[in-house]
Design a protein that fits this description.
The protein has 411 residues and is an alpha+beta fold. Among the domains are: 10-134, no CATH class; 273-355 and 373-409, Histidine kinase-like ATPase, C-terminal domain (Heat Shock Protein 90, 2-Layer Sandwich), CATH 3.30.565. The protein is 59% helix and 9% strand. It contains ten helices and five strands, in the order ααααααααβαββαββ. Strands 1-2-3-5-4 form a five-stranded mixed β-sheet, covered by helices on one side.
Length: 411
């Protein structure tokens, strides 16, 4: 399996090919000059005559040209240049570079195939240029084996380095892909958080609007003053819902400050446990019987945990009003500041009775019950888990619906 290559510019590729081919050709020329000097010293001629030196040079140029295809057909080029080096001294440089290039693939079978013509090339070169009494001598064999081992070792080392660089490159690409996935996951998580925030904010207000508007539609015994008061409550709830919707959607704007007040005043902060009294009073104004027990110092709770706790209480009251109208709700909020808890956490309990189903309308649907999406408690559970806590809900043995939550101050 070929290794992935790091992308290079065309100029870099041309320069890399040029200096390699030039170096191999100069190495062959050096051997060619040394052989010619040795022949002149001993007053000998090549086997095929003095003009063979020019043929040697031409064959060496042809071997250098073959190197241009060494990456496409590495084994064939290595075999061809090895055979040419047996006839040409200049082709020895091309043969060395082809063997080094082949060894970078780190395949022993290919290297063993080329080793045979490589060693035979030394014997053929000794026949073409008979500078010794014997064509095959021990020094020639040793030199051939050493040159083969050195070429293979250099090519193998280059192949190992290329594999290492390729692995680093692949790791970098993998890290970039993982980073892109984390960014997408963070965006999805943030959108889900905003959706939960919108549900927590709007469900409470819209349920009030639905309840009071339903009362106006089905209660025909109301006095004009009561109708006016109920309509005012609907109007105020709708305005509050619109204001809170704008506050939540403000985080989705690309340009900051689009929904900021025209007079430059800061936007109101998100409600926390310090606003429980106002929340309970609002629920009581909707004809819901609510009792609140608090223990500990609520102001000591971190702001983020306090906001989540407030949303849990708010959603619990909303669900009780939507699915158990007329039932009394008992809310308990305890913090670790009272010394009664074993860790720094906020514990919340909402308990309400489950009334028997009844119908007052002709179509069998209760006018004071609002159909919900069923995602409120699921969103609260996810919110509690993301905060490092837990949330459970369901009927107990007494038949009451109980919602309990625990939010740690730190994880």
């Amino acid at each position: 399996m070929p290794l992935p290559r790091v992308a290079r510019t065309r100029s870099g590729h041309v320069w890399g090919e040029s200096w390699r081919l030039g170096l191999s050709f100069l190495f062959g020329l050096a051997i060619w000059g040394a052989v010619q000097a040795q022949l002149d010293q001993r007053h000998l001629d090549p086997t095929f005559g003095k003009d063979w030196l020019l043929v040697d040079l031409a064959v060496g140029v042809g071997g250098a040209v073959l190197l241009l295809w060494r990456r496409r057909w590495p084994l064939a080029v290595a075999l061809a240049t090895a055979l040419l080096s047996g006839l040409s001294s200049v082709a020895v440089g091309a043969s060395v570079l082809a063997l080094v290039s082949l060894s970078t693939r780190r395949r022993w079978r290919e290297i063993a195939v080329v080793a045979v013509p490589w060693m035979l090339a030394g014997w053929g070169h000794a026949l073409v240029y008979p500078t010794e009494d014997q064509a095959i001598t021990l020094p020639n064999v040793i030199i051939g084996l050493l040159s083969l081992a050195v070429s293979v070792a250099v090519g193998w080392a280059i192949g190992e380095r290329r594999a290492f660089v390729a692995s680093l490159h692949e790791r970098a690409l993998t890290a970039e892909r993982e980073q892109a996935m984390r960014v997408v996951q963070a965006q999805v998580a943030e959108r889900a958080r905003i959706a939960r925030e919108m549900h927590d904010v709007l469900a409470h207000r819209i349920s009030l609007v639905a309840m009071h508007s339903g009362a106006l539609a089905y209660r025909t015994d109301l006095t004009p003053e009561q109708v006016s008061e109920t309509a005012e409550v609907v109007r105020e709830s709708a305005n509050h819902a619109l204001t809170e919707l704008r506050a939540v959607l403000g985080v989705l704007r690309d340009v900051p400050g689009v929904d900021a007040p025209a007079d430059g005043s800061p936007e109101p902060p998100q409600p926390t446990l310090g606003d429980l009294d106002a929340l309970v009073d609002e629920a009581r104004s909707a004809d819901t019987t609510v009792s609140l027990d608090r223990s500990g110092v609520l102001e000591a709770v971190p702001e983020q945990v306090s906001r989540s706790a407030y949303r849990i209480v708010q959603e619990g009251l909303t669900n009780a009003r939507k699915h158990a109208p007329g039932a009394s709700v008992h809310v308990t909020v305890a913090t670790s500041a009272d010394g009664g808890l074993d860790d720094e956490a906020v514990r919340i309990t909402l308990r309400n009775t489950v009334p028997r189903p009844r119908t007052d309308a002709a179509d069998g649907i209760r006018p004071d019950v609002t159909v919900g999406s069923g995602l409120g408690l699921l969103g609260l559970t996810e919110r509690a888990v993301l905060a490092g806590g837990e949330l459970t809900y369901g009927p107990d043995r007494a038949g009451d619906f109980v919602l309990t939550a625990r939010l740690p101050w730190s994880r």
